[in-house]
Amino acid sequence: MSVKSLGIFYGIFGVILFSSKAVMVKLAYEYHVDTLDLLLFRMLFSLPFYLYILFLIRKKKPSVEIKPKDYAWLFLFGFVGYYLASYFDFLGLNYIKAGLERIILFVYPTIVVFLSWLFFKQKITKVQTVAIIITYIGVVITFWNELDISGNGVLWGGFLVLLSAITYASYLVGSGWLIPKFGMLRFTCYAMIVSTFCIMIHYLIAGNWQLLEYPLPVYLYGIAMAILATLVPSFLVSASIERLGASNFSILGSLGPVSTILLAFVFLNERLTYGQLLGMMVVIFGVTYLSIQQKKKAKA
After folding, report:
1. Which domain of life is it from (predicted)?
2. What is the DSSP string of 216-248?
3. Nearest in space to 221 (alpha carbons), one of 19, 45, 90
4. Environment class of 199 (CB within 10 Å of its CB; exposed 0-12, middle 13-18, buried 19+)
5. CB-CB contact of 73 with 187 (8 Å)
6. Nearest to 22 by CA among 173, 189, 144, 161
7. Buried (b) or exposed (e) across 114-135, using 16+ Cβ within 10 A?
8. 3-state SS string for 115-132
């Protein structure tokens, strides 16, 4: 299997596993678990694995010299990509369905394009502009039938998930040039440890100190999120970015909404309206259109 084929395989598998997180969160919320508690469970249960992996690779030196500013950037992207993105996402899932959450998160490839223009002066082409417009039209269509004049919090939940998409896109853009310096394993472990540290600080300030008062299923969901929806996919995604680059990996996210909708249908009995399905197809078309044009440009 070629390097690119392996990167695609890792990316697809990682995206699907990450998608299962929203379903697990919604299942855990049925037990009235606090958002910050659940996020802390997710990170604390995965922390020992990252520390152990760091211990195993401690003698393996990076291929290039790592400067203090590289560590500063790593801390920033760990804070933004896995702490802020996760926190906004978990908060948003209090108000919207898992399938709708994944559709909103799916706009992150277009955000990657915008951030690459903003910070790295990469020109936004006409193709990218069209793709961005199509994608956000799809999001509006998806949202339209979900909005309730009585104020059911869908708009607020959607905004929180959009913030999650923006912060995650920031992580992807930054990690694309940091991973080669640190190495995939070391970078991922450091980023997740930074995120866990940030969540612990947040909990010390704002936590309700009821971590031991939940029923057993809440802890089991926390362990499942830690291993199946955090630990394994975090390495798969980093390995995919290492082989494909951040922009190409972001294209694989088209599987995210589909897999989440299927999982939510099976485990949460969620139903999507025809308007939501139309919106989802428009969003997927926008990102797919972008990916096809980028591949044509790469071959030219």
Report:
1. Bacteria
2. HHHHHHHHHHHIIIIIHHHHHHHHHHHHH-HHH
3. 45
4. buried
5. no
6. 161
7. bbbeeeeeeeeeebbeebbebb
8. HHHHHHCCCCCHHHHHHH
pLDDT tens, position by position, 254-278: 677 777 877 888 888 887 777 777 8
pLDDT tens, 138-162? 877 877 766 654 456 888 999 999 9
Closest among 211, 91, 243 to 157, alpha carbons compared:
91
> Quick one: pLDDT at residue 85?
92
As a whole number of Å, the end-to-end CA separation of the chain is: 24
- Amino acid identity of residue 21, one-letter, is K
Structure tokens at 274: 């025809």
Q: Which amino acid is at 169?
A: A
Candidate from 29-38, 122-131, 221-230 with smallest mean pLDDT: 122-131
- Per-residue HEC secondary structure of 175-214 comes to HHHHHHHHCHHHHHHHHHHHHHHHHHHHHHHHCCCCCCCC
**Number of folded domains in the chain?**
1
Amino acid letter for position 44: L
